[in-house]
Design goal:
about 300 residues, mainly alpha, MetI-like fold, about 0% strand, globular
Length: about 300
């Protein structure tokens, strides 16, 4: 098991290198001069040239990239062009906000999506199943920014129950968490339903029922337990995607998280901050996928046996 974990960890290195090269290329070749953006439109040519030289922007693209990689291997990811502070200082100050928002969104999706998916599978083709299908289609189709704005208009402006912006109290996370949970909840419902339908048609489920086992026990212990693996996979992947995909939600609710930081950094062509943000999120997604693989071993002994062989 340990050998497998080490191998998976080392496999993330070429992935991170590939991501870093792609993002560095995009930031380097897209229009816009970081020096001009920092100094403003009224800056002189001499001042822009001097700043470009100071920032190392006049060097060859590959030279700049390899210097960045070597510095990153030493733990130096650069200084932000905007505020002249180490990039990870700002990243770590904003990451807890995005993590909290993502956690509550996934929690809402799981706590509602899994029970609804199970009931839909057990009550297939009934009004409950058809209603869940309609709800999931609506949640999948609704854009996140529109849902967020509608929630603000209803619960903040009209009813005055919840705040529209900020992160001061737990109430500030309710609306953005529900907004972010919308599409994720739909995915969890449909995955749970389809997986449960496959499981409850298996022979061992019929055998358990034939032996007189309680229907609730058959569904939860024999059925749901064996349907968990694909559900955990979807939840894990969604959690990772939500970490980097909360940009729209954070923008709508004015939340100072990683999403708004990345948007601002891209607009300012703050290359060190964009690079560090993307690599940090990619690393976090890799760790989440690794945790999901470890959970497989605790749920299914057959998976643990395969890991031990590796």
């Amino acid at each position: 098991m340990l050998r497998y974990l080490l191998r998976r960890t080392f496999q993330m290195i070429p992935v991170l290198l590939g991501i870093s090269f792609i993002i560095f290329s995009i930031m380097a070749f897209t229009p816009g001069d970081p020096a001009k953006l920092i100094l403003g439109e009224n800056a002189t040519v001499e001042a822009v040239t001097e700043l470009r030289e100071e920032m190392g922007l006049n060097e060859n693209f590959f030279v700049r990239y390899f210097k960045y990689v070597l510095d990153a291997l030493k733990g130096d990811f650069g200084v932000s062009y905007r505020n002249k502070i180490p990039v990870f200082d700002e990243l770590f100050s904003r990451f807890p906000t995005t993590l909290k928002l993502t956690f509550w969104a996934i929690f809402i999706s799981v706590i509602i999506g899994i029970p609804v998916g199970i009931i839909s599978a057990v009550k297939q083709y009934t009004i409950i199943d058809n209603s869940s299908l309609v709800i999931t289609l609506i949640l999948t189709s609704i854009p996140g920014f529109w849902l967020g704005l509608m929630l603000i208009m209803l619960f903040s402006l009209k009813l005055g129950w919840l705040p529209a912006t900020g992160i001061d109290t737990w109430k500030h996370f309710v609306l953005p968490s529900v907004t972010l949970a919308g599409s994720c909840m739909a995915t969890v419902i449909r995955m749970t339903r389809s997986t449960m339908l496959e499981v409850i048609r298996q022979d061992y489920i019929r055998t358990a029922r034939a032996k007189g086992a309680d229907e609730k026990r058959v569904i939860l212990k024999h059925g749901f337990k064996n349907a968990l693996l694909p559900i955990i996979t979807v939840v894990g992947l969604t959690f990772g995607l939500q970490l980097g995909g909360a940009i729209i939600t954070e923008s709508v609710f004015a939340i100072p998280g990683l999403g708004t930081l990345m948007v601002t950094s891209v607009r300012m062509k703050d290359i060190p901050m964009v690079m560090a943000s993307v690599l940090f999120i990619a690393f976090a997604i890799g760790i989440i996928n690794l945790i999901v693989d470890i959970l497989y071993a605790f749920i299914d002994p057959r998976v643990k046996a395969q890991y031990e062989k590796k």
